[in-house]
Specification:
Elements (H helix, E strand, L loop, with lengths): L1 H21 L26 E5 L6 E4 L5 E10 L7 E7 L3 H9 L12 E2 L4 E4 L9 E6 L8 E8 L13 E6 L1
Length: about 180
């Protein structure tokens, strides 16, 4: 009989607590903090392209002209495989110098664009399953009027008939000392 009494008094609070939980409702107006900004994850859906140096794999390099000319090789890389083939043209972009100087607080002057030699006329073609192009040679002769701080702004762009609908252009900067 004592056992029944102990069971009765130990199970009664348990049944009351479970009954109270059964009649408790959750509300939808509870906020768990600030809303999350998912803007950083938009790049997962895009195909971005960038121009990189073959030796350093960087999109920005400082080059010292210590001989008659400087030769390097650059390539174009996509963040993921495109759905279609991609035509890319690499060219010198003098207009980007103003943007670069404003963003970095510098007063660089432009290296003579006519002196920059880009192999294959800067034209590259990527197949739908490729994310990296072959290397393209870039030759920079020592210009007669070359002074410290003459950057070369390369730009990769699609020709007038683009074959990829989702791409963003990134520019790379090369500083000549």
């Amino acid at each position: 009989m004592n056992t029944k009494k102990y069971l009765k008094y130990s199970f009664l609070p348990l049944v009351l607590m479970l009954g109270g939980l059964a009649f408790t409702a959750c509300t939808d107006d509870i906020e768990g903090g600030k809303p999350v900004d998912e803007g950083a994850y938009d790049a997962v859906k895009r195909v971005d392209g960038m121009l990189l140096d073959v030796t350093s794999n960087k999109n920005e390099s400082v080059i010292e002209l210590r001989s008659d000319k400087y030769q390097t090789e650059v390539f174009f890389r996509l963040t993921k495989a495109p759905q279609k083939g991609v035509d890319v043209k690499i060219e010198v972009d003098p207009a980007y110098l103003e943007t670069y100087n404003a963003e970095h607080g510098t007063e660089f002057q432009l290296f003579p664009a006519a002196d920059v030699a880009i192999d294959r006329e800067g034209k590259l073609l990527l197949a739908p399953d490729e994310i990296r192009s072959v290397g393209v040679g870039v030759t920079l002769p020592q210009a007669a009027n070359c002074r410290r701080g003459r950057p070369i702004c390369f730009r990769s762009r699609q020709p007038p008939r683009p074959r990829v609908s989702r791409s963003r252009k990134r520019r790379s900067m090369r500083s000549i000392w």
